[in-house]
Amino acid sequence: MALIELKDINKxxxxxxxxxxxxxxxxxxxxxxFVSIMGxxxxxxxxxxxILGILxxxxxxxxxxDGKLIxxxxxxxxADYRNRMIGFIFQSFNLIGFxxxxxxxxxxxxxxxxxxxxxxxxxxxxxxxxxxxxxxxxFPNEMSGGQKQRVAIARALITSPQIILADExxxxxxxxxSVEVMQLLKKLNKEEGITIIVVTHESGVANETDTxxxxxxxxxxxxxxxxxxxxxxxxxxx
Amino acid sequence: xRIEIIHEIxxxxxxxxxxxxxxxxxxxWGIFLLITLLGAGNGLMNSYMGNMESYIxxxxxxxxxRTSKPYAGYKEGRRIQLDQKxxxxxxxxxxxGTIDNVTxxxxxxxxxxxxxxxxxxxxxxxxxxxxxRQSKIRIAHGRFLNHDDIAERRKVxxxxxxxxxxxxxxxxxxxxxxxxxxxxxxxxxxxxxxxDESEFxxxxxVPYSTYKxxxxxxxxxxxxxxxxxxxxxxxxxxxxxxxYTGTLKRRHDIAPDDKTGLWIQxxxxxxxxxNKAAHILRVALWILGILTLISGIVGVSNIMLITVxxxxxxxxxxxxxxAKPGSILRLIISESVCITAVFGYVGMxxxxxxxxxxxxxxxxxxxxxGFEKVQMLVNPTVGLDVALEATLLLIIAGTLAGAIPxxxxxxxxxxxxxxxx
Lengths: 238, 421
Fold this sequence. Notes:
The complex is a heterodimer of chains A (238) and B (421). Chain A is an alpha/beta fold. Chain A has helices spanning 45-52, 75-85, 101-110, 116-129, 145-157, 175-192, 203-206, 228-232; strands at 4-15, 17-29, 34-38, 60-65, 68-69, 86-89, 163-167, 195-200, 211-216, 219-225.
């Protein structure tokens, strides 16, 4: 059984003019895969990501995550699933400005009720893993984009989630840092076996992943097995 | 978890110093006014009670007055004079067990008191020993009249300190034991009762029996006073007064609904009414204070609403990484309670200081009412009970102020919030 199973997912936004965004999405993503969902803006890729991240509901179909049907959850349940099963990485980092790096990383554990001392230790451990120990007590606005994104990655990893959802993770970074971040995600996938789904509109970013799922006008198009990048290993195209 | 919430609140308040200060000021001001009002109110009540205490005691005093209605062939305006029969009625079997400690006061006679070449006017009144307790007369030197004085019809007199100051130079206590002349009759001064420096009291007291023997041989009585057992509520006292005066009114041919024929001063009901007035005053002050506080609460609520709006994005992040609606709700309400409580306590502290300042300034000044001086405020402070009530009020207020903003924050949808950049 696949880690993620989407069956005939439909989603329509009703803001005045009804907008049918997802038109029957069928998709399976296996445990340990490194996948990108690629499409132009308006293709429905963000909506799909929100559904995968249990941030939004879908109208019809079914979404099963690790054997659990994700449908009509209460807000409390959804929050709990997000906390335990999903790690988010956002384009704009979404760190809390008045909290230091280590406090930001601790936050998901706070919502799990982990004791203060324990979660501080764990957060320091993850920051160390990402080479951010010297920045632990710095605030986000004292850090570079790459550092902020690594803090966000540490925050996503700290709960040992089933999947990492990365929404345009390099969108706000320069090309050198983008490469570093993608290398980091790749390394996490290869060495720790974490399932990573990257949503992007940049083919260069998608190229770094093992599978590229093209989405267009709310339907899944071509699914491309991407084996070339390991051999090729060329620079990221911007 | 608890420490975490305090930490969260501290950092969020640090980020909005000016706004927090302005909002806090509104709450501080509200509580400040509440405490100051209650303190001043207490001072006023204390002063009123204290001043009244010299006039009112736990006794009923009945005196004859002037009728205001024609009745039984008599015109209105007739002077009513109590006499021995009224005393017998009061002491009679009908009131046995209810009326106790009946004491009598004679009519008064003006007389000039002289000692050597000094002279002062006096208002001679024949009284019984209990009169001291009932009229709350404070003896400064010597003693008040006793039962032997009555029994032996002694020619003894108790004068006021203000009269004593006119009669002797220097220390007035040397007047005790001396003989002064009242008109042509010599009385031995046995006591001097206290009066304030500023007031002049003409009343001088001689034994009831002595007075009756010298000045007034009739059975006329000026006043009858007594203590009452039984009635406790205002209604019961009114019923008692009705029944007691009913008989007297029949005896003296006073119309049953004539309010002025008999003058009755009931110390019990006066006290009850004063307690009621004090209660009403306190309630009114609380309402005023709370109304002021409400403007502070609305301020906090308003600020919290703006804060929530500004922090929508942050709440979105928190929710995305696993914050449940309840934890956001708790965060905002604790923040609100925290602002309200901290600034409320500042206000309460300032209010208590203001009360102390009132105590040291206004409360020290006495207002001259002509016949005596009165302190407008006595001990204008609030007790621990009020502080505790105010604390409870602050916590409730903080929760109310935070409720709507918190509910809004808890309803933030994570995707909406993440989109709002």
